[in-house]
Design goal:
Number of strands: 23
Number of helices: 12
Radius of gyration: 27 Å
Oligomer: single chain
Distance between the termini: 82 Å
CATH class of the largest domain: Alpha Beta
Strand order of the largest sheet: 8-7-9-10-6-11-12-13-14
Shape: globular
Largest sheet: 9 strands, mixed
Length: 449
């Protein structure tokens, strides 16, 4: 008998023959997910018989198990990317790579294939491009190994069967949103198709110890498209971030069963493909001119210390409601800091349009950027400069106090390496290089001249 599908509510478990926007049993919205139902053969279930249909599991002593990390890893040409992955691509692991369209996911994967195919058999499966299109990219990136293979398919069943053959050490699937299973009638990219195709591929990869990298699309908000369960199923989730038109691009792991999630790899796009940035701080500061509104921040991108330039611009507002714009910084955090500046330092900002830019396309997710943002705004409003010998870091509290920063020693070491003489930072840091700052108002009066 042929398999059929039904729609099951993820909140209450009620099942329906067709999809509806709202579950009529528990009134939950958008909770119905299509699932495959195996055909009934007219036999009573184990529950009805009162018997267990399972069997005793085979088990081993944990002491005798060889750790997965002891196996050889597939190394890419990028040292930092290997670090992000925990030392390379682990055999039998399934990784999910997500990023904005056009940011360079296919370019990065082809460069990974080119390096791995020097010693291992690699299969690149595309559901979006033809062999001719992929060949053009491979030629541009120098991927001409005899061990690099290509297949075009959108069938989750066929891809899983190919992986089960065990002929390849690394398989790239581009992308999960284009795949469909024969047993499910819904369109590719739906929750049921993404979940079930992902399950098929993961089971095949684990059974044959094949490393698999799956490409995932993202929504307009920047989150991974599709069900959250897909992120739980895979071993590694990588986010490819940055501006697709220029600036630096970063790859960070938001989930990693085999390594840290604090590492980051930084790239720039050149004619020959993606190139690893060895010293991003020097590259970010190379074109800096010291003007009012410019402050150097000692921040952390993952575990890597980086010096970035914060630029602020303040202009007279032409409307009753002042405009606040931030590129690379959280706009809600910016509004909070502006409120602190107005209340604690007596700066008049209610009639000013304020614009913040993090140079180089970097995106800050560091609470220690607060002090640099505040000093850049004050510098722009007053038309005064901060000395070229200073870097800045520290969190600003609602009372205007300067709070401690995570891993201050690494920030200081990076600033010293690039020739800065002093850092303005929290008073809790016991280092002669750091000029202690306790209060925001006193710090601005003393150093923004």
């Amino acid at each position: 008998m042929k398999s059929r599908s039904q729609f099951v509510c993820q909140q209450c478990g009620a099942s329906f023959s067709k999809w509806m926007g709202q579950c009529t049993n528990c009134d939950a919205w958008n909770s119905l997910v299509e699932q495959v139902v195996e055909p009934e053969l007219g036999k009573k279930s184990a529950i009805e018989k009162g018997k267990q249909s399972g069997k005793k599991l085979d088990f081993v002593k944990l002491k005798t198990v060889v750790p997965s990390d002891a196996k050889a890893r597939l190394l890419t040409e990028f040292d930092d990317l290997n670090t992000v992955l925990g030392g390379g691509i682990l055999m039998g692991s399934v990784s999910l790579l997500a990023g904005q369209p056009g940011i360079g996911k296919s370019t990065l994967l082809m460069q990974i294939c080119a390096e791995v195919a020097k010693k291992h058999d690699v299969l690149y499966i595309s559901g979006e491009e033809s062999a001719g299109q992929v060949k053009l990219r491979a030629e541009r990136l120098g991927a001409d190994s005899e061990r690099l293979n290509f297949a075009a398919s959108t069938s989750g069943n066929d891809i899983a069967k190919t992986i089960e053959s065990g002929e390849f050490d690394l398989v790239i699937v581009d992308s999960i949103q284009t795949l469909a299973m024969d047993e499910i009638s819904s369109a590719p990219g739906t929750v049921s198709q993404v979940t079930n195709c992902g399950n098929l591929i993961i089971r095949a990869a684990k059974a044959t110890d094949t490393a698999v990298i799956i490409v995932g699309h993202v929504t307009k908000e920047g989150t991974l498209a599709g069900p959250k369960v897909l992120e739980h199923l895979v071993d590694v989730v990588l986010n490819f971030e940055g501006d697709r038109y220029g600036g630096f691009k970063t790859v960070r792991a938001v989930k990693n069963r085999f390594g840290s999630t604090n590492e980051v790899a930084i790239f720039e796009m050149v004619e020959q493909g993606l190139r690893e940035v060895v010293n991003p701080s020097a590259a970010l500061l190379a074109e800096r001119t010291n003007t009012d509104g410019s402050v150097i921040l000692a921040t952390l991108n993952g575990n890597r210390p980086i010096l970035v330039e914060i630029q602020a611009l303040a202009t007279q507002s032409n409307f009753g409601y002042p405009k606040r714009t931030a590129s690379g910084f959280d706009i809600n955090r910016l509004n909070l800091l502006i409120a602190v500046l107005e209340r604690r330092t007596k700066l008049r900002l209610s009639d000013k349009d304020i614009f913040i830019n993090v140079v180089g396309g970097m995106k800050l997710n560091d609470s220690a950027a607060d002090l640099a943002i505040c000093m850049a705004i004050a510098s722009a409003v007053a038309g005064r400069k901060l000395g070229e010998e200073y870097v800045v870091f520290g969190e600003v509290g609602l009372g205007g106090e300067i709070r401690s920063a995570f891993r201050a020693d690494q920030r200081i070491a990076e600033a010293k390496k690039l020739g800065f003489l002093h850092a303005i930072g929290p008073s809790t840091v016991k280092d002669k290089f750091v000029i202690p700052a306790k209060d925001l108002r006193e710090t601005l009066i003393k150093y923004v001249k």
